[in-house]
Automatic annotation (TrEMBL):
PANTHER family: HAD SUPERFAMILY HYDROLASE-LIKE, TYPE 3 (PTHR10000:SF8), PHOSPHOSERINE PHOSPHATASE (PTHR10000). It holds the Pfam family Hydrolase_3. The lineage of its organism: Bacteria, Bacillati, Bacillota, Bacilli, Bacillales. InterPro entries: Cof, HAD-like_sf, HAD-SF_hydro_IIB, HAD_sf. SUPFAM superfamilies: HAD-like (SSF56784). This is Sugar-phosphatase. NCBIfam families: Cof-subfamily, HAD-SF-IIB.
Length: 264
């Protein structure tokens, strides 16, 4: 088999719009994994919301999470690699969100810190790993692990306006439109492509033996890096232009179709 490392985006790629992982896709992935290929989920999600899909498919190995900011092992949930954000540098962005009433959260590899989280039930806190942290505490409050991502969320016009206004800023972070309703900030060197490259080198897998499938702007770097980059039919045109080939949409089992064509 030519492709030894196969990177799959999750939302809009592996999952349908109803967030379903189809039995047919699972079957094909298990078949290819049984022939020796390694699968890695490469997603904007946190580990706790993507590792269950790896387990559902019977896969171990690794997950690239937070849009490349942190790579973790599925077994034991250990941090393999991460891009640490400077807390002091986050302050202007937090101030902007506070002044413009924009919702944001701060992510460590395994934790999600949300202002106002103290109003949630303990069950919700436990389920979503959310803990209260106030902006003023960013550099004062000791943390077990560093921040790797800040996420802003809101309606499309709000996100469009922020991206337009921030285009005039000088950024120390990578500012990424990770979805219609989301903007992510990460370390300037953090991306799905850089994390996938680091993992491939760690596993001793040449780039020509790496395949990646994605559908959105946050997938561009991994599609560019991989020996074969495949865009979903539901991708924006800019993503299709970067990819080597295209497959069907996420609602038409595009991942299954691509893997059958290029890996079986």
């Amino acid at each position: 088999m030519k492709y030894k490392l196969i990177a799959l985006d999750v939302d809009g790629t592996l999952l349908t719009d109803d967030h379903v992982l189809t039995p047919g896709t699972i079957e094909v992935i298990k078949q290819i994994a049984g022939q020796g290929a390694e699968f890695v989920l490469c997603t904007g999600r946190a580990p706790f919301s993507c590792i269950p899909y790896m387990e559902q498919m019977g896969l171990e190995g690794y997950a690239i999470t937070h849009n490349g900011a942190a790579t973790v092992s599925v077994k034991g949930e250990r941090v393999i690699h991460h891009f640490e954000m400077r807390s002091e540098g986050l302050k202007p962005y937090i101030q902007y969100c506070e002044q413009n009433n924009v919702h944001y959260d701060l992510n460590t590899t395994f934790g999600l810190y949300v202002e106002g989280a103290s109003g949630l039930s303990q069950e919700a806190l436990d389920m979503y790993h959310k803990f209260l942290i106030e902006p003023k505490d960013l550099t004062e409050r000791p943390l077990d692990d560093p921040f790797v991502k800040m996420t802003l969320s809101g309606d499309i016009p709000v996100m469009d306006k922020i991206m337009e206004e921030w285009s005039t800023w000088t950024h120390e972070f990578n500012v990424l439109r990770s979805g219609d309703y989301f903007i992510d900030l990460m370390h300037k060197d953090s991306s799905k492509g850089s994390a996938l490259k680091h993992l491939a080198e760690m596993r001793g897998i040449p780039v020509e033996n790496v395949l990646a499938i994605g559908n959105y702007y946050n997938d561009l770097t991994m599609l560019e890096y991989a020996g074969l980059g495949i865009a979903m039919d539901n991708s924006p045109q800019e993503v299709k232009d970067v990819a080597d080939v295209m497959t069907a949409s996420n609602n038409e089992e595009g991942v299954k179709i691509a893997l059958q064509k290029y890996c079986l």
